[in-house]
Structure formats: structure tokens, C-alpha cells
Amino acid sequence: MTMKTAGIHHITAFVTDAQRNVDFYAGVLGLRLVKKTINFDAPEVYHLYFGNESGSPGTAITFFPWATARRGRIGGGQVGYTGFVVPPGSMEFWQNRLQKLNVPYTQTERFGETYIRFQDWDGLQLEIVEREEGSASEWAFGGVPADKAIKGFGGAVLNSFAPDKTAKLLEQVMGLEKVGEEGELVRFRSYGDLGNVIDMNRTPMGWGAGGAGTVHHIAWRAKDEVDHRKWREHIAQSGFQPTPVVDRQYFNAIYFREEGGILFEIASDTPGFAVDEPFEALGEKLMLPGWLEANRSQVEQGLPPIEVNRLEADV
């Protein structure tokens, strides 16, 4: 069976403080909080989704804010850098914005592209690159106008403790194409126009430690529920052990750990975040799965209040 993913569907990470998480991703980066729900496996913890105006596949970065989470250590078996893409000509805006908001950054180049690298307030490693491809975001918030806004994911840098095996998986199972090598990095590309460029460190890395400031998993796109079932069969036939299909309300999911230690998910593009609230109100109300709705008051009491605010520097 030959299958190819369009690229990254979403990336999920651990952080500590929920309000601080909102302040960074909505306030600093100007992303839209498109869904406020809970971790279906731990209802006492939020699951927050940020993305473009609709949180479309390839744009959504998601978080489990756990107040008592230990600080993680980035290493093998993890996404090392999560990359965002912005329109050409936007880099100076983002450099000035990070400087204004006291977010330290560095500049680096690879494969002919210039990146700025920085961390969120929990230490999650992020980067921004300019590219033509990918639809422009229609969301503007705070000090980030739509014409400078993050389009979605540019890609990710993967840290593997078995890079040869991870590379084989990316090419032969996920359907990405190897397009270049530079220094310690190998570049792969999918056919999509967002979340489509994956760089992998060729040097094996020792295990990282999960916790605040680290990525929990990287999810890859399946077109719909039918395609998603085909992906599960494909992953199993390729020698991996995918979980049963899990209904995450906004997409179906399966999970498996690849041989380089990274937790992979396959997520369906459908039904999307507007399935349970109108587009105009995305992210405004705490949305719960049906089986928890009867306990709404109890769930809400266990969660800290959060709101999307413009930063003082943008008022």
C-alpha cells in the first residue's frame, strides 16, 4: 500500500500555566484560540488549541497546561524545534515584535532559508521562517496584522535516537521525499503546502525527558475518516503497533511510537473545530465531550479561569 501524508496536522506540547500559555500564543504570536476543551484522558487539565482563523490542519499547535508539571529536557525521541511560517517580507516585523516583547531570539540559516529561533515561556523551542507557499492567515489580533500573521506550521526538526530508522519511516511509510542534506541535518518534504518540511538530526541523540517545554507528540494528516482507517492498516502492515482509532471529537486519532522514539499520531482533517460551535465563537466557551457534559460544573470548578487578552504593549 502506497500512502503519503500532506504533512503535519498538529503538534501537542506540555506547559505549566494556562493563562501564560494563552498570553504567549495568542498575545505574543497572534494565533487564534480556536478550541478550549479538556484533555480527554485527564479532564482536570485543559487542552488548548491555537491556529489560524479556523485552526485548519497544518496550523494548530495544542497544549496541555499542567500547573505541577516538571520541567522537561529536550532530547532524542522528541520534536526539537516547532517551526512556523510567515509571509515573505515579514521577518523584520517578527524580529521587532519579539524584541519589543522581551522574547530573546537568535538567527540561523539552513537549506538556503533564514530562521529566527526563540522559546516560549516554558522553554518550548520555536522558530519562524518566511515562505511563499501556504494560504495566508485571515486572523489579526493584538499587535499582529493579518498580512504579517503566522500562516501555520513551516515544519519541525526531529531528534531521534535511531535516525536511520526514523528516516526510513518518513520516506517509506509516511511518504515524504528526501530533498537534501546539510551538515547534521537531512530534509524531507511532503506534498502539502503547510507543515510540509521536516528536518531531522542525523546524529543519534540520547533520550529527552517529557515535561513542560517539550513536545508530547507530532500528528500527521489523513484526508478524512475513510483515509484515516487506511492509514491505520498501513501503519500496522509496516510493522508498527498503532492504537485503536480514538475519537477526539474534532478529528480521529491513532498513535504509535516510531523506532527513533518519537510519538507519532495520524489525525483526520475532518470534521474540524466548527463541529460543536460556530466559526465566529471558536475558543470562547469550554467545550466538553458528551460523556462529560453532565459534570460540566465540576469540571469547570477544577480548571483555572483563562481569557484571551491583548498584551499591554499592544493596547
At CATH level 3, the topology is: 2,3-Dihydroxybiphenyl 1,2-Dioxygenase, domain 1
Q: Helix fraction? A: 10-25%
Could you list the spans in which at least 5 consecutive residues all have pLDDT below 50?
Answer: none
In quaternary terms, these chains amount to single chain
Query: Which CATH first-tier class would you pick?
Result: Alpha Beta
Number of helices: 5
- Architecture per CATH nomenclature, i.e. the level-2 architecture: Roll
Strand content: 25-35%
The largest beta-sheet arranges its strands as 2-3-4-1-13-16-15-14
Radius of gyration: 18 Å
Pfam family, one: Glyoxalase
Organism: Paenibacillus hemerocallicola
GO molecular function: dioxygenase activity
Protein name: Ring-cleaving dioxygenase
How would you portray this structure in words?
- By secondary structure, the protein is an alpha+beta fold.
- The protein has one domain (8-314): 2,3-Dihydroxybiphenyl 1,2-Dioxygenase, domain 1 (Roll).
- Helices cover 16% and strands 35% of the residues.
- The chain is built from five helices and 16 strands.
- It has helices at 18-28, 91-100, 163-172, 225-237, 296-301; strands spanning 8-15, 32-39, 42-51, 60-65, 78-86, 105-110, 113-119, 125-130, 152-159, 177-182, 185-189, 197-201, 215-222, 246-247, 251-257, 263-271.
- The strands form two sheets. An eight-stranded mixed beta sheet has the order 2-3-4-1-13-16-15-14. An eight-stranded mixed beta sheet has the order 6-7-8-5-9-12-11-10, with helices on one face.
- It is globular.
- The N and C termini lie far apart (54 Å).
- Keywords: Dioxygenase, Oxidoreductase.
- GO terms for molecular function: dioxygenase activity.
